[in-house]
Each structure stands twice: as structure tokens, then as C-alpha cells.
Specification:
mainly alpha
Amino acid sequence: MRVSAGMHDLRNLYARANACVACHQNVDVDTLKAGHPMLVFELDSQSINEPKHWRDDDPAIGPRSWLVGQAVALREIAWALGQAPANGRTELLEQENALAWLLDKTSFGGDLSKLSAFPGIQLSADGIAKRAVKWSPTNDELMSILRTFASAESEFVPSQSSAELSFSRAQRLTLALERLSVALGFGEKIDKELNALGQDVQRHYDFDSAAFAQHLRELRAKLQ
């Protein structure tokens, strides 16, 4: 009865991601032109920062929320790209590339980066979100993904990609590293390294990809 009245059943993580990400990920092009920053939404940390009104006892809810949220964010950005004018696509393309790149480093991604935004990436991202709702990763699986993320320093060499794209990737990667380390229960042990990465992605206009790569190396060494 409540759903038919227009409410969302947020016990379903896919429905929760749709309700949150659809509003908090995409910004109208005219609003961006007026100076509003591009949003980078991540469902798991948002659920912590704006506490839910219920308790989740599932130990995998954190990484599952992260994965579902990132997949839905990619789907929504791919949709927005299809609606955007030619002169309003650059930042969306960078965000799409960053999310596809990140998800390709998990067992769910495959070759998202090689697909077209519509319908390829849009449909694939939605499929990932639906499958990820049932994801119950082991600590070993989470650790493997975390180490894969922390080993990406070679992809932040300045000549590899534009500064803007590197920054978008670094933002998404930093959020992922933080959420997975929290899920594994040792976020405080690598707090110094995570804080350094977080400082690196505070501002796009002075982002230093070489410094970010160095901080990734330091994190990887700590994980080993």
C-alpha cells in the first residue's frame, strides 16, 4: 500500500540506490554552468554521514552498498550523457570513464570501459547493480579488491591521461579504498595513508597525480 502511494521500499538495496543516486549524482547542465560543482555520490559513506532510521545487521551491507551505489551512479551518468548538449558532456564523460574504470577492477566490471554509454554501459551498469544486491564478499575477496585498487599507481602517470580524468578517477578510487578498509575493520590502521589520499583529491585545480601515485604506493606497502 505504501509503495503504491509513491513511497520506496528502502529495505531493497537496489531501490535504495535508485532513490538516492538518481537525485544526488546528476546535476542539470544549466546549474553546472552557473558554478555548481559536479557531484560525486557514494551510497555507503552517505548512509553513514546521514544515518539511516533503522539498523542493518548484515556485515556485508557496507561494501554491498558501495558497489550497488557506484553501479547505479554509472548508469545515471550514462543516461545523463544521452541528454546533455555537446558542450556539456566533458565532465560527464570523465565521471563515466572514472566509474567504468573503477568497476572494471572488481569481479563485476568486465570490460565496461570498452562499451558505448548508451545502451552498452547503461544496461551493463544496471545489471551489475541488480547482481550486487546479493553480493556477500569474504574478507579475502575484499582484501583482493582493496589491493588491486591500491596497485593502480602506474595509471596516474601524468602522460597516461588528462589531469581532469586522473582527478575523477582518483576521487572514486579514494572513496572506494576508504569504504572497503572500513568494511575490513582496519581503517584506523591505514588512517594516515587514507588521509593523504583524501587531501590529494580536495581540489581539481591543484591535483598532483604524481603525489597521488606516491601515496597509493605508500598505502600498498602498508597493506602488504
